[in-house]
Amino acid sequence: MTIPSLPRALTTLLLGVLLASTLAGCSEEECPPTEGAMCAASCDAPSDVVSFQCVDGEWKCPDDHPVPMSVVGKCCSMASGTEIAPTCSNGILSCPSATFEAFQCTCSPTEPCGTTDGIISLFCDYPDNDCGENGPGRCSMHPPMLAPDAVGVCSCDGTIHLSPTAAANEGLDIAPATTCAHHVTYEPCGPYFCYVPLTRCEQLVSGDPDKGYACLSNACISNADCAEDQFCERAPGDLDCTFEGLCKPMPTSCDPLPAPVCGCDGKVYSNTCEAALEKQGTQLVTACQTPAGYFPCGDVFCAKGTYCSGQGSGTFDYPIEYACIPLPAACTEGGATPSCACIEDDVCAPACMQSADGDLSLVCTL
């Protein structure tokens, strides 16, 4: 009797039925339970198989099928996913090296892979991560690694998973990230997502849908850490352009609105955009010469007729944010000289300071 290769659990069940009904004088008590109880006619005939026989309390291969088999499914190549014939080793037919045993080697959206012998989960690995759109995939047990600094992957069911392994555990391959709905802080990067603005997407290996992408850090100390079309934007509260910043794209044009700042090169620019055009981050304005008609206010210059307001915790994570606010009309009414008394309604009024030139600054930590 010839029996095709079957999943191990089903093979064991059939063996119990066949042996109990056809082998005289043999019972469960005489032969211990066994799995993969199949015998081949020869090493060259792995498809011609019969069941073990219970002889003197032991499972044995019959004389006309003397080769025991450890394979109950198919041998699948780890590299290509194609089916490989079992080979003989020490007189036993088994899967050769660089293969794994599975119920099937190819797969599709309607024919998932299942598991290897009911234990290790497999997933359907499609060419170019097309999720079966252009043909079948191959069953695999080795999903790609998560791209460096990526925060998740898109899977073939349209959901986001933490890693390719998490998707593979549900039998899913990864898919182009653009096919999954995602938060605005996630940037699609091949099948992965990068967290912006802390990271950026770069294609490292052209044509490799799994390993060709990476989320690279946007952190920088100087422009040398950024791409050619980027500049190192300093973090708020950076006193002297020595703190870690983030690489940002250079602007292509700027609003002419004057809001002078001090660039990291020690030059005054009309606003932060104009500084960025020259690949310059900004720092505290005390590092630059104050332009005429302005006075220092943290990391900006305020025009005469305004007062400096600064609020924040004063820590690196929550630095003080500075702004130039027009003076109330009462401050200059009748040609009066502005004083702290005229801005007493400001929440930071108790911290008001007046310079020798009469400029008002209200800086407080909240």
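Second entry:
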Amino acid sequence: MQAEGIIAADFFHIDTALGRRLYALVFLEHGTRRLHITGVTVRPTRDWAVQQARNLTADLGIRINSLRFLLRDRDGKYREAFDTVFEAEEMEILKSAPQAPRMNAHCERIIGSIRREALDHVLIGPHPEVESGARTPRPPLDFRIRSEYYGFMTTAADLPAATRRSSDLSKRSAEVFAEAEDHPVTVTRRDGEALVLMSQREAEGRARLLNFAAQLITVTLDDRGSLAERMSKAFPWMLALSPADRESCAQDLVDAARASFSTDQPHLAIAELTSWKETATAVAAGLSSGSAGLEWLDDDETVERP
């Protein structure tokens, strides 16, 4: 079974700042790792899921001809009409075993990444269109993840700056350190310049983003060749990708960098960079669409660590 011919579907929930639970339907193309978040709603009915399937096929256009299989679980929110939308495109429906999320491991992993790299860093407020289940036009994001709730997410850059006095480090140290784990905290001092307290993860992320920005500046100053060719000089691992993937990778990295700097969220660019680098590493190791393909195992099989 070729990975490039599979698209997987899965639901996941999102909790708002007011405690309201929203549900999102995502589709992941195995071959390109391109993610589609087709909709967010408070009432994920079967008819709503069918409409999201129709929206996806319309968005994919002729690209859907390269897909042969839809992989999904046995959630009751799917119905026969949902499968019919894809069967009309000559796709076969693959259902995972009951209570076996590892059979849809790629989707489960990307949902985990969405939580760690995006949702854990934003506050999501109420929105009338989502509450009513309506689908309204929205501007697309410049990077891979496209979301119905784009436009009413509060980013970390929108949060008020946290400021503490130096005395708080001794009186309320646990509280200050816990706050610094979530976002940088400015510590004011009477006898010197203010200091910024942040987690090591945040500091490393900002350092990596600055290094990434320096490499992009080098790419910008070099006017020889296409963007993909110039990016490949700065990031040699891109040479393991196909020419088409190099073009996509170059544009995705630039767009993610813009998003990171405009929202002051380093993890956006770092996650995109890491994702593409891991993809290139896997291709270099022989796992590619041109290989023998992937074989789905009915039962778990223990293999020795190489």
